[in-house]
Design a protein that fits this description.
By secondary structure, the protein is α/β, with parallel strands linked by helices. About 30% of the residues lie in helices and about 25% in strands. The strands form 4 sheets. A 7-stranded mixed β-sheet has the order 1-2-7-8-9-10-11. A 5-stranded mixed β-sheet has the order 12-13-14-15-16, with no helix packed on it.
Length: about 250
């Protein structure tokens, strides 16, 4: 079931209440998680990411309730890991010619996982933009090694939403979707745990990327990660926490 995010953006992901571990036994999940996919309906209809393979049928059926799949003008793949791209092969069987926007490395990784299917890839890098109509654009920001070489984030102008991929997320199931509706103690705990397990090894790279994003002067009003709660209330609080946590690691 879709949930409204902001403007013409809806969440169309999957809340995984039963998930208990991630990356094998390395990461224990105590409060569920989510795979966040987003549907933007402007002059162009854009799907940002999909969900894990085990949930592909439910994902596609729910998506069909929101939009005729043939009306999806393009797909943005912020990261090729299977919890983001797992439903892509099934989706592309329905709409095989739909353009996929991703980094060059993501294209290689997707073809490595699913084979060369002849999909219509459009590779992008930091600074590239895509006009989606109604005066709005998607601006792409490479996020190499945060936490994979292919990662990127996507910024929606007008609504000022940063779809941040694995950065700023949590393995935390939040039925009400937003950080101001979540248990704040649990949210902070899960955000810190996520940083420690997923992004901690890349703290020096993260510090440089935060500086780069700051210099881009993006007017961020919402941060929509790939897992967990969307940062709607004071979204830059999680950016400040990441900077602080990275400083701690950098100083060790």
């Amino acid at each position: 079931m879709a949930k409204h995010v902001k403007g013409n953006v809806d969440w169309v992901g999957f809340v995984d209440w039963e998930l208990q571990k991630f990356h094998g036994d390395d990461y224990s999940i105590l409060n569920g998680s989510s795979q966040n996919s987003y549907l933007i309906r402007e002059g162009k209809n854009v799907l940002i990411d999909t969900v894990w393979t085990p949930h592909k049928e439910e994902f596609i059926e729910n998506l069909k309730k929101e939009i005729d799949l043939k009306d999806i003008d393009c797909i943005v793949l912020n990261h090729s890991e299977c919890d983001h791209s797992g439903s892509l092969p099934a989706l592309m069987k329905e709409i095989p010619d739909t353009p996929i926007y991703c980094t060059e490395t993501a294209k290689k990784f997707v073809e490595g996982q699913y084979g060369k299917q002849g999909w219509n890839f459009h590779t992008v890098k930091t600074g590239d933009t895509l006009d989606i109509g109604n005066g709005k654009q998607l601006a792409f920001v490479e996020m190499k090694m945060l936490h994979w070489p292919d990662s990127m984030a996507t910024f929606l102008t007008g609504d000022h939403i940063l779809f941040s991929n694995d950065a700023f997320g949590q393995h935390f199931a939040v039925e009400e979707l937003f950080n101001d509706k979540a248990n704040r103690c649990l949210l902070n705990k899960e955000a810190m745990k996520y940083f420690a397990n997923i992004l901690n090894p890349f703290a020096p790279i993260l510090k440089r990327k935060l500086v780069e994003i700051d210099k881009m002067n993006l007017p961020i009003e919402m941060i929509a990660p790939s897992h967990g709660a969307i940062w709607r209330e004071n979204p830059m609080q999680i950016v400040a926490k990441y900077a602080k946590w990275a400083d701690v690691i950098w100083s060790l």
